[in-house]
Amino acid sequence: xxxxxxxxxxxxxxxxxxxxxxxxxxxxxxxxxxxxxxxxxxxxxxxxxxxxxxxxxxxxxxxxxxxxxxxxxxxxxxxxxxxxxxxxxxxxxxxxxxxxxxxxxxxxxxxxxxxxxxxxxxxxxxxxxxxxxxxxxxxxxxxxxxxxxxxxxxxxxxxxxxxxxxxxxxxxxxxxxxxxxxxxxxxxxxxxxxxxxxxxxxxxxxxxxxxxxxxxxxxxxxxxxxxxxxxxxxxxxxxxxxxxxxxxxxxxxxxxxxxxxxxxxxxxxxxxxxxxxxxxxxxxxxxxxxxxxxxxxxxxxxxxxxxxxxxxxxxxxxxxxxxxxxxxxxxxxxxxxxxxxxxxxxxxxxxxxxxxxxxxxxxxxxxxxxxxxxxxxxxxxxxxxxxxxxxxxxxxxxxxxxxxxxxxxxxxxxxxxxxxxxx
Length: 423
Fold this sequence. Notes:
alpha+beta; 15-stranded mixed beta sheet; two-stranded antiparallel sheet; 15 helices
């Protein structure tokens, strides 16, 4: 049932009762002040949380020019993982299953065929047992493993999801690291941000993160992945489609500033969006230029969830073979005005401290975004390979029900939204 016009108008009128504070011009001006005066470096309580690699800078490049230029890398590989989403069964089991896949450009059909599948299991019954040995299938092209997660009932769904996703991704990346000749692009952040965030979410999750071996195994996989690529002198990076960090926002507020944006992505959008105010029937309005991609220089990040892998962090106790600064998260952000979208690209400082890698990584990503009108083709291909469709999720859950001789625990949302409801 849709809204009647009178109801729609009544809801829309609420906007006139809200004073949104300073106008858009003031927000843009304050963002410029933060950009010019706060970031070289950005410190909180005397500790540097963000600093530029080679000065605070922003740039633009013509969309068509960058799309037509020669790509810096002859080949690229993308990596992604997809899950069925956490599923609760009436016998007390909570399960998620993830599969990871790697794409290659130009294509490598044998590589595309390979999968790493991880099932994580949380059981309320202490007698439940899981065979955790690796198995192979599909004529040896793929492998699978089931893992029992230590009991943490309140957060069981989030834990099984994060561990399945990041274990599958990191194990597959390590398994096929030698197949990457020029560049690996992860679909998402460089490190398992969703897992590292647990330390700020709840004391029980923080304790689980610090004391249990499973989260440490995940972090160790990503540390070893960085070491492997540094040793081979082959760069890797992470492409974050929906950046949601708040390091700059929190720092501005902690320094008695009133940041008029919800997160750092909004701040960078203010900084990178180009355009002008033009006359309109109601005064003037902002008109965005869409002919160029704009982007920042590279930053080193030691704040928020980037801290554990910085020189100030302990990497959850994982042994690091390189100097600690080599693992630090560095990033630049790119803004695509065609869709009004901001992307964050992360890479280890071990590569970004070299100018040649900074330039090549930047131009490769900019060209990919210009051509694909969105995320690089490599990770879109990996996403297609790793994705588990709604019908496949439904079928897999039914198979699990039969195997366990039990039924999935259903909620009203399942009835309301149907089997395709994304838990």
